[in-house]
Design brief:
This protein is mainly α and about 250 residues long. The chain contains twelve helices and no strands. One of its GO terms (molecular function) is nickel cation binding.
């Protein structure tokens, strides 16, 4: 897999946007992005386990390349761009538009495994929202009760209810993805703890550029196709030994 050259940048967008949040808002962001959030993200490798099995990912450098490529060529063009539309739909109280973009997100999942992970995590987050006593989600019962909801849609609704701004929720979504992938790679490659921390620092430096890129995408250009990722997640279903869910 050939990744485009991505310059190292200081995540200015993330810094500027998070400083506008109240201490409570920042704590809600940490809560939403925490590995302890009971949505089951830790049980999916998003194709990484098969990539390791095939030797495509086998050291810190190839791990960084795999995650970076997916962040900038898939997450940015799909999930981050959709977060923008989903947030706008919520601000405008446009449930029809929210439903349309949710369906668009689900249609972008290129394998049954990626679709399963997306829906399973989305439903888990919606169940959690209904059970958190401090949140008044009655106005959004229609959205929470969606038969199939993408994780990115559930994330957008959660962030909206938590009072988070767009750049903040996009930054948090990127962090949740990077953190989960590095945690999976730590077990699979395997990586040492210091190597993993170095990767988190290096990959998070790409978040600001990914967000800026996502927010410039037109509606008709939302979506991405990464054949190797799609094949890895599909072939993972029949992989002989697996640590992660399929």
């Amino acid at each position: 897999m050939e990744a485009k050259s991505i310059p190292t940048v200081i995540p200015i967008l993330m810094i500027e946007s998070t400083t506008k949040q109240s201490p409570l808002g920042l704590n809600r962001l940490l809560q939403l992005c925490s590995a302890n959030l009971p949505v089951g993200g830790f049980s999916f490798s998003q194709g990484l386990e098969y990539a390791v099995e095939m030797g495509w990912v086998n050291n810190p450098e190839s791990t960084k390349e795999w995650i970076s490529f997916n962040l900038n060529q898939s997450i940015a063009y799909t999930d981050l761009a959709l977060l923008n539309r989903l947030q706008n739909a919520l601000v405008e109280d446009d449930f029809g538009s929210f439903h349309t973009w949710n369906q668009h997100a689900l249609a972008c999942r290129e394998s049954n495994e990626l679709y399963l992970a997306d829906v399973a995590m989305g439903k888990a987050l919606m169940r959690l929202l209904k059970d958190i006593k401090s949140i008044d989600s009655q106005h959004y019962v229609q959205l929470i009760s969606e038969k199939e909801i993408s994780f990115v849609s559930a994330f957008a609704l959660s962030a909206h209810l938590f009072g988070l701004e767009l750049n903040v929720m996009q930054s948090g979504f990127c962090w949740a993805y990077i953190d989960n992938q590095v945690a999976a790679a730590t077990k699979l490659v395997p990586l040492g703890q210091t190597q993993a921390q170095n990767l988190l620092f290096e990959l998070s430096e790409q978040v600001a550029e990914a967000i800026e890129q996502a927010n410039q995408i037109d509606d008709e250009n939302i979506g991405a196709s990464l054949p190797r990722l799609a094949m890895a997640s599909a072939w993972h279903e029949t992989q002989y030994t697996r640590l992660f869910r399929s």
